[in-house]
Each structure stands twice: as structure tokens, then as C-alpha cells.
Amino acid sequence: MTDLTRRSLLRTSAAAGTAALAGFPALAQSREITVTALGGVWEEAVRKSFVAPFEQKTGAKANVLLGSPPQWLSQVEANPQNPPIDVIIATPDLAISAAKTDLLDTFTTERLPNLADIPEEFTKALSGKGTVFDYGVAGITYNKKTVKNPPKSFREFVDRTAAGEWTASLPGLTYAVTPIMLIWTLAKALGGGVENVDPFFQAMARMRKNVVFWGGPNDFFNHLSSGEADLGIYFDGRTWAHVDAGADWMDFVNPSEGGSINALAVIKPKNAKPLAWDYVDVMLSPEAQLRFATMLNYPVTNRKVVYPDALKRRFTPWQQAHFPPYEEIAKVRSAWVDRWNREIRG
Questions:
Q1: CA pair distance 270, 20, nearest whole angstrom
Q2: Burial of 56 by CB count in 10 Å (0-12 exposed, 13-18 middle, 19+ buried)?
Q3: CATH number reported for the structural domain that contains residue 152 in this entry
């Protein structure tokens, strides 16, 4: 080989190497996705249950972004052609709003084989633009030391609270989910619904003098542990988390009318990387969901998941609770807030 030829080859090789290196970041980026998680134990559960098996299965990387669903959706809305997030965890009402603005891809079993094992109710509720992957139930949590005979229904809860048998702790208006887990749930249990919340406001008028309000989930625990309240409307999963942390004086009842389902959905923005489908499919798999349920004490939606006996006793089957009509509630939510401010002021 002549020097000229060798130099030409080296130049060609160098150029090829430069081109390859120039293309490397793009290639590397195409093998990375950005997914979301809430903070604390939630983040740990997402990393162990979803991120690790996804990376093992695909050889790709999933970067975890902490924050909140409104923040993540705002980021996608700002750049829908090149969304900075590939998979988002969101409440169903936010997912429905995002679907209406055409921000989301449609979930199908062709793209997500494990979707076939998710009850179709959880996907239909989001118009096919995502699906619910875990949920909790808002029912009655009580202190076993002070409430020896807990109410078995919401109606009994209202009657005995009004009679002054105990002090109840209820979510206040500053808590975002209150219109769903309290106003709609009690109205429905007492014979009303989205179109008629009079039964709820009438019940509150009867109970008001024996009620305190909590602004955040930790407030509720403080109310019960301090003795300021004896029972209240709260989540099953958070109750069991407190029990596991040593508060074995707490217990939970799913009222006979059925508590409200408080769910989280997974959605994929349009134009997100195709690898996002692999990640979502892992999220919906029975193995990943069981690990997630075990870590967080909340039930999951894949019907193939078999819970250990300890979890099975705690979890409320979704068929024994009610999936809120998020879209209808959103239309009247402001009117409910106005009426609350006029009549309850809590």
C-alpha cells in the first residue's frame, strides 16, 4: 500500500469514525427514554418494579423524572412535536383532559400485549388513551382503641357521627381529591350523584359539629394518633402503610355501598420514543405489577396477578368499589366548591 493510499485510508477511516461518533449521541439517545415517578417510596417502587426489568429486557435506559402529573403534562404541552417525557403517570382526570387535546397515543394490544390482561373498564375510562395500572379505595379508617364497633356503611357513618358517637376526620377542600372521595362518594351512597349532591350537603349539616378536616394525608394520621378524631374517610393503602410502620391500632372498612376508586393511569404522549411502548408493557406485566403492589400496599390491575395472602386480605377488589365519573365531575366541580364555601367553610 502506498503512502498516498494509506493516508487516504486513514483519512477515510477518521472521517468514518468522526461520522460514527457524531451519530453516537443520537443513537444513544434513541436507546434512552424519560419516565416519571412520584417521590419517596414511590420512586423506589418505580425503579425496582418497572425501570430495572425494562432495562434488563431491552438493554436501553430509562431516566426517572420526579415531579407531579400537572407539571409533566405542561412540559409535553409546551413541546408536543418533541416531548421531553416518554411515559407519564397521571390521575385519570388529567389523562382525560390531555386526551381531549390530542396529546396522547392510543393504547392497543398490538402495541401492548399485556394490555389484554387489564380489565377493559380501566382503558375505556380513558377513551383508550391510557389505562389504569394501580388504585386505592377511599373508605373508613378507624382507631380500634376508641371505635369498638366501626360503621359498616357510609350511611351508618353519617348517622353515628351526627349523633356525636365520635369525632370524624374528613378531607377538607384544600385537598385536591376531596370533590371525588368525599362529595361525590357520600352523595352517591346517600341516594344522589353527580347531578344531585344535596344528600352530601345535608349530611354535612348534620355532622358538622362532630367533624374536623384534614388538608393532607399526614394530617389524618395525626388526628387519629393524637386522639383529636376517632375515624374518618381515608385510603386503604395509606392505612396499611401506617399499620406496617407500627400503628397497629388502625383498621380499614370498605363500606357496604363501596368506596371510591382513586387510581393512577399510565399514558404515552404522541411523538414520544417508540421504546416507551416496551416500558409501558413492562408496567402492565403481572410480574412488575405484583412487585409494585407488594412495595406500596396498593392493588394493581392485571388480572393475572396473584397476591400473597397478607395482601389479599387487605386489598379491595375493584368490583367492590366505584370508578368515579371524572369527566362529569370536572364539569360541576367549581359549583361544588362554591357551595362548600358557602355552606361548610371547612
A1: 29
A2: exposed
A3: 3.40.190.10
Taking residue 76's Cβ as centre, other Cβ atoms within 10 Å add up to 23
Looking at the fold, whether 158 and 267 belong to one and the same domain comes out as: no
Distance spanning both ends of the chain, measured CA to CA: 88
d(CA 254, CA 14): 69
DSSP state of 254: -
Q: Is the dihedral of CA 284, 88, 265, 291 positive or negative?
A: positive
Domain that holds residue 55: 32-135+262-320
Instruction: Kindly report the number of other CB atoms within 10 A of residue 341's CB atom.
Output: 11
Indicate the SS3 state at residue 142.
strand
Q: What is the DSSP letter of 105?
A: P
Least confident of 21-35, 94-108, 173-187: 21-35
Residue 97's pLDDT band (cuts 50, 70, 90): confident
pLDDT greater than 60 at residue 29:
no
Do 332 and 213 lie in one domain? The reply is yes
Q: What is the CA radius of gyration of the chain?
A: 25
Number of domains composing the chain: 2
Q: Given this model, what pLDDT does residue 330 score?
A: 82
What pLDDT was estimated at residue 156? 98
Specify the pTM. Answer: 0.78
Residue 331 and residue 233 share a domain = yes
Residue owning grid cell 388526628: 223
